[in-house]
Design brief:
Layout (H helix, E strand, L loop, with lengths): L1 H22 L16 H24 L1 H26 L5 H24 L6 H10 L12 H11 L1 H11 L4 H24 L43 H13 L22 H6 L27 E5 L2 E5 L7 E3 L7 E5 L2 E11 L1 E5 L2 E10 L2 E5 L2 E7 L5 E5 L2 E6 L8 E5 L2 E8 L5 E5 L4 E5 L4 E5 L5
Parallel strand pairs: 2-4, 3-5, 4-6, 5-7, 6-8, 7-9, 8-10, 9-11, 10-12, 11-13
Antiparallel strand pairs: 1-2, 13-14, 15-16
Helix pairs in contact: 1-2, 2-3, 2-8, 3-4, 4-5, 5-7, 6-8, 7-8
Length: 464
């Protein structure tokens, strides 16, 4: 069945090539188009689709269920990206406003893939869905100049947390799921090699031909506001996120600096009330009350200073600092007396092997921590959207001033004490007998009463 599905995928690609060749025969073709034929880099991309993508789709079909449904979306995403590559090979690069509609089809499928995962959190294949959902933004490499290849690598590493769970759950049960992981991971490995060869510093556009547009004719009208990126790679997606577009528009306006006043309409002196008493009399008396604060002129903000990343052993302390998008950080040469201190690490993952004294995450965002054994305490302070997974044992986990924390306990760490203060969106995931996890929210709201001799505090029913 897997071989048959792969053959069907190759036939679909062959038909697509014939259609593109026949469709490009009329009119004037750019040299990049090869007089109607697809360019070399589109042909190479077809090899990626007919190879690892087809293998992943075939294995997904054999697994079936939600995994198969997800694979259909992935095939559609690669098909949409292929069409963008065809356009780029035959057209000159458009303006940023005209580029957004060209990126929209892939962006839409990425959102659908991630929304499907969120809607199926109870799926028996949730780890499969999560591995795909965490890494599918890699298809946004077309907008990631000048380092599209490293970006894909980061997204591939982001899936490692869940692919490892699939391997752990099925390596002794069903080899097909192990093959599925290997096939899926190879998609991103092959894509990195493809990008390195054909699009090293960004998507390659034709030097000749018409300027690209979504309609293929006149350039598409600019969207209302600055174009959104292919995906908000850092945030969770639950379908269309109009809030992200609004934030992008706001940030773009702020980034204009002094140019933001260029869109304001000039007011002549005869229309200014402080220079024309008659207008002031017509407008009536001003409302009484406190005067609003006048904005103070401030000096132009200096650009934020970027500190170099640090991963080193300083005495008994492992210092992990200023890591940005560093997936796959590993500390393996550990001793019982050592501690790990991670500070200002964002969009990164850290694995600590062996038995260690304590671990602290401080001021980290979108940080993943996996560790074996801690004899003291794991502290999460001033963080946002972090995931902590225990492989062995830990006696205490402290969560303080943190918004968004998922703690994955192991079977050996079920007696762990979790202490929280001034934190929200905390969840503890407890393993079941079948290897799956049950997610339980940590209470955030409490009720306190005086019983005549002391205060008694209990969690409320609606907590968490």
């Amino acid at each position: 069945m897997a071989e048959l599905a792969g053959l069907v995928q190759r036939l679909e690609l062959a038909v697509g090539r014939l259609e593109s060749m026949s469709g490009g025969g009329g009119g004037v073709s750019s040299p990049a188009a090869g007089s109607g034929a697809v360019s070399a880099y589109v042909e190479a991309y077809d090899g990626l689709i007919s190879g690892p993508v087809a293998q992943y789709a075939a294995l997904s079909q054999k697994i079936g269920g939600d995994v198969q449904k997800h694979a259909e979306m992935i095939k559609q995403a690669f098909s949409c990206q292929r069409q963008l590559l065809v356009t780029a090979s035959r057209s000159q690069k458009p303006s940023d406003s005209a580029l957004a509609p060209l990126l929209a089809p892939v962006s839409k499928v990425i959102e659908e893939v991630q929304a499907f995962r969120e809607k199926n959190r109870s799926s028996p294949f949730f780890n499969h869905l999560s591995a795909v959902s965490e890494s599918i933004p890699a298809l946004g490499w077309v907008a990631m100049a000048p380092k599209p290849g490293p970006f894909v690598k980061d997204m591939q590493d982001a899936a490692m947390f869940y692919t490892n769970r699939v391997l752990k759950d099925y390596k002794e049960k069903d080899k097909m799921h192990v093959d599925w992981v290997n096939a899926y991971v190879s998609i991103w490995t092959e894509l990195q090699a493809y990008i390195k060869q054909h699009h090293t510093t960004g998507l390659s556009w034709s030097k000749t031909g018409p300027v690209a547009s979504a309609s293929g004719g006149a350039p598409a009208p600019p969207p209302p506001g600055p174009p959104p990126p292919p995906m908000d790679f850092g945030e969770k997606s639950s379908g269309g996120d109009s809030g992200a577009v609004s934030r992008n528009a706001l940030f773009a306006s702020l980034n204009k600096g002094a140019d933001i006043t260029k869109g304001l309409k000039h007011v002549s002196d005869d229309k200014k009330t402080h220079k024309n008493p008659a207008l002031k009399a017509q407008s009536g008396p001003l409302p009484s009350g406190p005067k609003p604060f006048a904005s103070r002129p401030t000096a132009a903000a200096s650009p934020a200073r970027t500190l170099p990343p640090v991963l080193e052993l300083d005495g008994k302390k492992w210092k992990v600092e200023n890591q940005e998008g560093a997936q796959g950080l590993v500390i393996s040469d550990t001793e019982l007396k050592q501690v790990v201190y991670a500070f200002k690490c964002n969009n990164s993952t850290l694995q600590v092997k062996g038995k260690i004294n304590s671990i602290i995450l401080d001021n980290c965002k979108k940080m993943g921590l996996v560790f074996d054994d801690v004899v003291g305490i794991v502290e999460v302070i001033n963080c946002r959207d972090v995931k902590v997974q225990v492989i062995g044992k830990v006696p205490t986990i402290s969560i303080n001033k943190t918004d968004g924390c998922h703690v994955y306990l192991s079977k050996d760490s079920m007696s762990c004490e979790i202490i929280s203060a001034k934190s929200s969106e905390m969840n503890v995931l407890v393993p079941n007998k079948d290897g799956e996890y049950t997610e339980i929210p940590v209470p955030e709201q409490f009720k306190t009463i005086w019983d005549g001799s002391k205060l008694v505090t209990t969690a409320t029913e609606i907590a968490g």
